[in-house]
Amino acid sequence: xxxxxxxxxxxxxxxxxxxxxxxxxxxxxxxxxxxxxxxxxxxxxxxxxxxxxxxxxxxxxxxxxxxxxxxxxxxxxxxxxxxxxxxxxxxxxxxxxxxxxxxxxxxxxxxxxxxxxxxxxxxxxxxxxxxxxxxxxxxxxxxxxxxxxxxxxxxxxxxxxxxxxxxxxxxxxxxxxxxxxxxxxxxxxxxxxxxxxxxxxxxxxxxxxxxxxxxxxxxxxxxxxxxxxxxxxxxxxxxxxxxxxxxxxxxxxxxxxxxxxxx
Amino acid sequence: xxxxxxxxxxxxxxxxxxxxxxxxxxxxxxxxxxxxxxxxxxxxxxxxxxxxxxxxxxxxxxxxxxxxxxxxxxxxxxxxxxxxxxxxxxxxxxxxxxxxxxxxxxxxxxxxxxxxxxxxxxxxxxxxxxxxxxxxxxxxxxxxxxxxxxxxxxxxxxxxxxxxxxxxxxxxxxxxxxxxxxxxxxxxxxxxxxxxxxxxxxxxxxxxxxxxxxxxxxxxxxxxxxxxxxxxxxxxxxxxxxxxxxxxxxxxxxxxxxxxxxxxxxxxxxxxxxxxxxxxxxxxxxxxxxxxxxxxxxxxxxxxxxxxxxxxxxxxxxxxxxxxxxxxxxxxxxxxxxxxxxxxxxxxxxxxxxxxxxxxxxxxxxxxxxxxxxxxxxxxxxxxxxxxxxxxxxxxxxxxxxxxxxxxxxxxxxxxxxxxxxxxxxxxxxxxxxxxxxxxxxxxxxxxxxxxxxxxxxxxxxxxxxxxxxxxxxxxxxxxxxxxxxxxxxxxxxxxxxx
Lengths: 263, 499
Hints:
The complex is a heterodimer of chains A (263) and B (499).
Chain A: H1 3-17, H2 24-40, H3 52-71, H4 75-91, H5 102-115, H6 119-127, H7 131-136, H8 138-152, H9 155-161, H10 171-192, E1 195-197, H11 198-204, H12 210-220, E2 223-225, E3 230-232, H13 245-262
Antiparallel strand pairs in A: 1-3, 2-3
Chain B: H1 7-24, H2 31-48, H3 51-59, H4 61-65, H5 70-81, H6 87-94, H7 105-114, H8 122-138, H9 143-160, H10 166-183, H11 190-202, H12 206-222, H13 226-235, H14 244-260, H15 264-277, H16 285-301, H17 321-332, H18 335-344, H19 346-351, H20 355-359, H21 361-376, E1 379-381, H22 382-388, H23 394-406, E2 412-415, E3 420-423, H24 432-455, H25 462-486, H26 491-496
Antiparallel strand pairs in B: 1-3, 2-3
Helix pairs in contact in B: 2-3, 2-5, 2-8, 5-6, 5-7, 8-9, 8-10, 9-10, 10-12, 11-12, 12-13, 12-14, 13-14, 14-15, 15-16, 17-18, 17-21, 22-23
């Protein structure tokens, strides 16, 4: 590995592990140079036989990149780092020593997919992992449980689990995840209740003060009765059943044509 | 339509017929004779450019490969390539252990005749190699040898690049895939397959393309790379003229991909297609069982309960026991029963790769439970729901019921102040959806009719005779008309005539 790359790598490690918090700006700057260096050394997307030590360093660089992009709330950048890391995690899994950051990063990716409501991708990604890891590994189990609760509708469990995140970085996703479940709950309430007392609505939606709730209610177009302190949900009127004329005509014509061919 | 479309029905029948023939007819053709007649057929296929003959040869492959051994192959090669020391013969023989050649008299005669006969076409050589591959794959200690042979054969095939070889080539690819699989190096074969797939699609080599796409999908799914498999599916078009066996496989893989992606409707259609296209249950029980395992799970995930009769099927009964237990748990909506069944059969589900799918059923169990409650009670407290469904807290129950109402699982509403759920009446099941379903079924029947018309085969030039007859009739009519016009036809003729 070129000496220039080595010094940059050391610089990145210094910036990332700096106390009390890592120097994210510095990280980003160094990472850009490092990525160019990695491409020149043919390590960003390694092919064929490459020195294993170099691969470990390259993986480490990309992992730091993934973490620092989460810390600076840059999800698309995390996405890119994750797809680059896939090569190391899947194709070189047998030859490289396992990384202790692998499962945290995979778990983060799963949480990210959950917050973006990409459930199909979530499951496809999950299939890559062996069953015992899904059941045992805390970093993976967390998003898996979240998904299960979300699908069942046990929203309070999701809410309570937000403090149990296995790694610091998971908390970056908590806010958007809570936004997602709040919207889910709201749409359920619209369907399931006619009206709700303000206080109960606030508990159900996990609001701690009333003004937040009122603002939220306004956004969703709920009727708030302050004197009786209740929320009334606009009932969607019985959907009118219309006969789909166009479609029926088209279908009948198609049948006629087909029958003509047969007879 | 090509012959390929007809293959499945024929295949099963042929095989059955063959089997029957073997048992009833006194002298069954020896494998060597069969190989020889097959190579003749292949030669005819090459010289007449008629792929039908090759397909006929390949149809016998399954039955034939079970009866092939070292001696048979050796004798067949000796007989086909004559006495001379040809390079092709030498290389072919080098793959087989040396041993005594069965000598019978007819062969001696053959040899003396054929010593200067022309060398068989390369297609025949590849066919022999195919048989050898399958033979080598049978024994565990010759498998590494099979891999080497596979490599050499593929190189040879690509160097020859003959269109008349396509059908055999497709079978070779399948054998190559199998060789890699048994060697446990399926992932290493991917670059080779991808390159070959590109070439095949450029050359419109449909058979090989179908086989290769399936090999690739298999290799991706084996390693749980559903993402890549999905991308492969979206980037390639599966050749329409592919054989039914390949289609069945393709649908099976597609169904699995879609199931993982939570697209259950499409998964269901694909798996159903796979079942319909698959060879009869008794002929290929392994495939039949594997597809049904997924089919049952996907049907459950869609909220349907599979037919009871399915689990009584002779081939399926044993294989599906675990799945039957799961179905029972889902049907009763009992979460605890579901959990115990799941842990009891966990090993089998993991072996079948259905574990993650079955875990997803948890929510279906809850939904079924709620639906049952909503049907039997007009009003039930959240506390009771919680107890009956083994939920953790009343709070959870409220959210879960709310979600069920929103998702349209049940009709009803929650009265929060009183802490109960009021169940509404079920909607009557008659609406525009019914006509939609009806329309879909009609479309299916019409499509089936059209496809079967398309798949019919007519003997060449058979219509000529009819045409000639029709022509003759028209001619006579014309003459008659002319005669009438000319007034040559008088009353006498009419009275006594044949008309």
